[in-house]
Design brief:
The complex is a heterotrimer of chains A (about 280), B (about 260) and C (about 280). Chain A has eight helices and ten strands. The mean pLDDT of chain A is about 90. Chain A is α/β, with parallel strands linked by helices and about 280 residues long. Chain B has ten helices and two strands. A two-stranded antiparallel sheet of chain B has the order 1-2. The longest helix of chain B is centred in the middle third of the chain and has 31 residues, at about 155-185. Chain B starts with 13 loop residues before the first helix and ends with a helix. Chain C has about 280 residues and is an alpha/beta fold. Chain C has one domain: Rossmann fold (3-Layer(aba) Sandwich). Chain C is built from nine helices and ten strands. In chain C, the strands form two sheets. In chain C, strands 6-7-8-3-9-10 form a six-stranded mixed beta sheet, sandwiched between helices. Chain C is globular. The model of chain C has no long low-confidence stretch (mean pLDDT about 90). The chains are: A alpha/beta (about 280), B mainly alpha (about 260), C alpha/beta (about 280). Chains in contact: A-B, A-C, B-C.
Amino acid sequence: MPIVVRDVTYSYSKGTSLENQVLNNLTFKVDEGKFTAILGDTGAGKSTLLRLVVGLLKPDNGTVLIDGFDAGHRSVKGTIGVLFQNPEKQLFSKTCYEDIAFGPLNLGFEKEDVHQKVLTASAIVGFEQKNLETSPFKLSGGEKKKLALAGVLAMEPKYLILDEPTTGLDYCGKKGLLSNLGLIHSKGTTIIMITHQLTELLSLAQDVLYLKDGTIDFHGSVQEFIEFPSSNKPPITHFMSKLNEHGLQVNQNLYTVNEAFSEIKSYVHKRMKDHV
Amino acid sequence: MSNMFFSYFPGKSLIHELDPRTKLLALFLFSILVFASQTLEQFLFVFICFLFIAFISKTKPRVYWYSLKPLLVFFLLIFIMQLLFTDGNEIISFINTSITYEGLYLGLTVISRFVFLILFATVLTSTTRPSMITNGIERILRPLPLKYLGISSHELATMMSLSIRFIPELFENAKEIKDAQVSRGMDPSRSFLKSISSISIPLVSNSLNYVEELVIAMENRCFQGQERTNLYELKMDKSDWISLLILCSLLISYLYFT
Amino acid sequence: MFIQIKNVYFQYSKGNPVIKGIDLEIERGEFVAIIGKNGCGKSTLSKLLNGLLIPTSGHILIDGLNTASPSNLLAIRKKASIVFQNPITQFVRTTVEEDIAFGPENLNVPTDEISQLVNNSLEFTSMSEFRYREPKTLSGGQMQRTAIAGVMAMEPECIIFDEVTSMLDQKGKCEIFAYINKLKKIGKTIIYVTHRIEEVLDADRFVHLDNGIIDFIGTPTDFFKLDDLDQMGIEVPEIVQLYSMLYNEGIIKQSLEITDISRLEENLCQLLSEM
């Protein structure tokens, strides 16, 4: 069973002069095994939506169902793993090992199983084994993020939800994280990733859900999103449509540098031949 | 997400317009009023005063509820203590202890005292920008010879304003950590003590980072507390003096007649 | 020369140097981008520039004033001021206007002049309508604009931006760039520290920092001619990548200046359609 969000409405500070509706009648479904990117500007309601799906907030109206159960229900404990924004501020154990083991221990696994899960999870994210016994507060920002992700992965969640995990990472850190996510997804985990940079997810995500002012502006496949008229075009797509405006008949719906390069190359070659 | 506990709510009312010093003094006078009250009839009078102030401040009822809500457990505890451990005329008795009429009365008055203090404080905080409160306190403290203690009233005011700025961030971070723990399978109601210790450790570490960055940001903007100017020089208006006059005469006659 | 950095070393703890011998001079009105991956020492360098950190050896002069002398510090920080990465921890006060007033208050500016400075800064950053707002009700972009306004109110000649956009969304980033451009136009010296070079293509000079040493100083166009950018951990903007591929393949024969993405796009379109 998938994640089903039906007619969900939510507002903050109800009944005061600061009342603020952030989600308005939201309905969508995320199928198992999919990698979905949730896009939208800050304030579009992305983080609120995440908290509703995890069951930390209750919707004012409507329902959020995980595998047929209400979000936050005892039976779905452990099936959803979340990496919130600023995970580096949410580490809490004395050692990195304890921090990763926290989830599986809460779920009632045996000591040996937990040990195995900690090792597996830290291996997936590339967290150095020798650091497992140090304090999480001594790590660098990038390492802290890896640790937080390992803590979530150790629960072996069926659904993995991430809230802007690449914020603050440099190019190498970002590349490493994204390739890990690709790996986790290929093993069958359903992934929902909140981001405001579509470009970094184009090669990974299958579906895009675009939130605007608390409502869904678009929900469909990545290819459909590229063709969808919106201001939020990836740079390469934007450039290809610009070429078209200049009279070059090239395929507009491309989004990687390599695709664009071969398209332009073959177009130019064809033109040269026509000239001759 | 946002914490509504003692928050400021912008608005237009006579109370919003008053000088923060007037409101701070008024809070002080109302506290005397609350502490001088003993009987439920007197608290009824305090309640009428509060209703009047609340009415002209145009603050919504829910705002007061936000301030009271986090303290309900505390009130209940005090009430039960008074109820169980006061001697007098029995109403019902248990194996070892008995609930008395006096206990009930005392419980109600003690709680009323706390509730009214919080309600009046909420009027101040919901109608006054936090920065104006610290500004007001700084001006009230300025004549005191604080420099013999090695601090200036400016430093004290800066410290206060930073704390006011810092506390909601602490709440937010504590909530973030708790959310992360709950989402990793922890049941906060079952392991209450454990969750408190596991929240406080990262909270201290994160706060230290926060303070470090804040100090650098302040130095970057040339912070010094010895002699400085202020964006706002406070001014007491006619309405401020009139309000204080009315309040003082009310309090004096109240103390005189009770 | 406005800023002179002479053979500067710096370490937080003994035996662990973060800055390992840097020489750099920056002129008035210049726009310099300091780039490099996380942990290369670029944030440390920016804090050295206005005396928030003091070099372990070597020295830094700001308009002739040595940062190592404590009596110079206020004057130096009034000349060169930093906008930091984290919008929340640099918000000192509880409302926007009070936060902007913090600098001038410290510099003992009289009350009526402070409100003039605050008004000007609010106007410059288009934050006037938010002047009474509290930080938690602002977006990241608005908070960083407040930080810029707070620095502007001290009327510095040079503003140092230290990874100011890394915690912002796309909209917030665009907001900030608009004001940095505006600052450039009124002649401020700008030093922009970042690991995302697509943000600083219009800089006069790139300074690339690797492991505490400068290994490249030059124009952005020259920088993109380096061939090991990917290994250096540099994310090259996709349009620039496409241009380099087309250039190397010989499809485009002209060498283009890289100062601005949309201008590069325009030039590419022109060249390709003339073929």
